[in-house]
User: Fold this.
Amino acid sequence: MRFTLQTKHAKTGREKTFVYDNMAGTLHYENGARVPVASIEDRRFNRDSKATVFDHDSPVGKTANVQVLKIQLGLSCNYSCDYCSQRFVPRADETSRKQVQPFLDSLSKWMVGTPQRIEFWGGEPLVYIKTLVPLAEALREQFPNTTFLMITNGSLLTPEINEWLDRTGFNVGVSHDGPGQFVRGPDPFDDPKKKEAILDLYKRLRPQGRMSFNSMVSRSNLDRAAIQQFFVDLTGDPEVPIGEGSFIDVYDEGGAQTSMKQTEEKAQFRKMTLDQLQADAIDNFSITRTRLDEWADSMAYARPAEVLGQKCGMDRPGHIAVDLNGNILTCQNVSIVSFAPNGEGHKIGHVDDIEHAALDTARHWATRQECLECPVLQLCKGACMFLEGDYFYLSCENAYSDHVPFFARAVELATGGYVPYRIESPTLPEHRKNLFEVTEAKPGAPRVVPRVLG
Assistant:
């Protein structure tokens, strides 16, 4: 679908019209000529490698040639965070270290080759430390060159656990929302011992690039520059890596309450983010570089939308989430006794019969009219694939405002300074057309004050 971009030059104020095609991934001048976009890296796209369009009636399968293995240890957690995607997920029977050896013995029977990455998930994975240690050590011995990843709230770290994580070769993301942590839940930095342990792990892993602080953006935590400054002050490291960084998806009422409610809020958030991108004020966020790079690559090589999978990657046959009993799950944040909005259970198969595993709890973005008619499709890739109804709508609204500033900045860089301020198309909702127009906020809307680091 083609979108007309009304733009204004950031320095001269001169206006110019461009046309963007979300299906072809191309940016054009008004006369139809392609805008020559310089790619950051030479990453051409295989046009024969089309993504699988799937839904309940046409599910996508899984393969034993695993690229990413996500091991769900269980959903127990020592914290209870307000917008956690697992907050209301029904719990299956807990697994324990008794399942470790049978799980390890089963790998050679169903998995082919060596996974590129193995991820260890909770709940809070360190709640399962007695299971995690023998499991990870055996897998490290079997796969010495595979990347290990764990996301933790950091509250259960100790010097001994830190030493083990370092020695075992883990990459660790500590989930913390910086100045907006109060929105998420308890703050481990309020406890001096927990803070000391987290910073000890940072000192161990940061030199090898194996640790980040992972922050989410929400209605009460919109200012990425403030989040970045929080972690710079915390660590004393001006280049402290910040992972995640996206606006939350909505899985329940807690997530709904942390979504932006009014058009004015959304416009303010977009404008603040664009200002910070232009000032290079949020460069510590991994999404800043990856999103701008991907926009450049998409437009430089005319990436067709038909090659796009879902943003999480769990629609890929070689990305598999399992529990220690070998059950295959939709993703690592669900359980075998939970159900998707379409009524199907999130258990989609078993490793003993992997060739018949079927992802029938979700659907590809190409089955959603909202995605087909969206200018930021190329990077959003459909929000969460198993959401439906109001929660999908809210997630879609969040994702649009989250991605538009990066799109605008990418167009600015590609065109020598022309920044889109309005997007026109016959089907784009009116409140999405004016990108950065800020009117007086209605009572009750949090005031978004831009923070730009010097």
